Amino acid sequence: MSAHIDDMLNDKNKLVIPGLTIEEAFGDIKGVNVRVIVKAIFSREPTGLVHIFVDNSNIEIEGKKLISALESVYENQLNIDYGRLLKTLLNGRQIGDDPVIVGSRPPPNDSIWRKIEDFGYRVSVFDKNYAFQEKKVDNELGLSISDAIQEYKRPGIIVLVAGDGDYRPALTRALLRDWIVEIWFWDHGKRQTP
């Protein structure tokens, strides 16, 4: 070791480099490869916990459209059982956090969102834009997925109920962090996003 490195050792031969970057500390030493090992302060072991995210428009529009055609009933005759949906998605597994459901604002006299909250869902509603599109819904759901990835350092399982590709960036981040991703959708309702 050079005298320069010896000056950076404390009395217990531990490297002490206050306020210096690795480059500042070792940049002038020729022919030395420096490998920095940082111990993780948390485990990366998967939790197996399920985090559920639902694009309600996918269920309300595409789901009712498909089921009404299959069962020869009118769409307005169908009601979604959100408790059963939750049970189906969990399939006996442990939930990691309150499920998140995002959708468009219903008429003022509609009580559906209050009923959904009773099942333990975190509900976010948004107005449709001038073209009756729901980009705020997609953005909110994508951000909720990203929040879960950041908040829960150990990977779990993300279950997404949606019908388009707007969530690809958030799901890609989840996969890169060793999360398992399940996507539930109505086959006829899937749309590719450019």
Automatic annotation (TrEMBL):
Superkingdom field: Eukaryota
One Pfam family here: NYN
Molecular function via GO: RNA nuclease activity
InterPro entries linked to this entry: NYN (IPR021139)
Residue span(s) of domain NYN: 50-182
Protein name in UniProt: NYN domain-containing protein
Source organism (scientific name): Rhizophagus irregularis
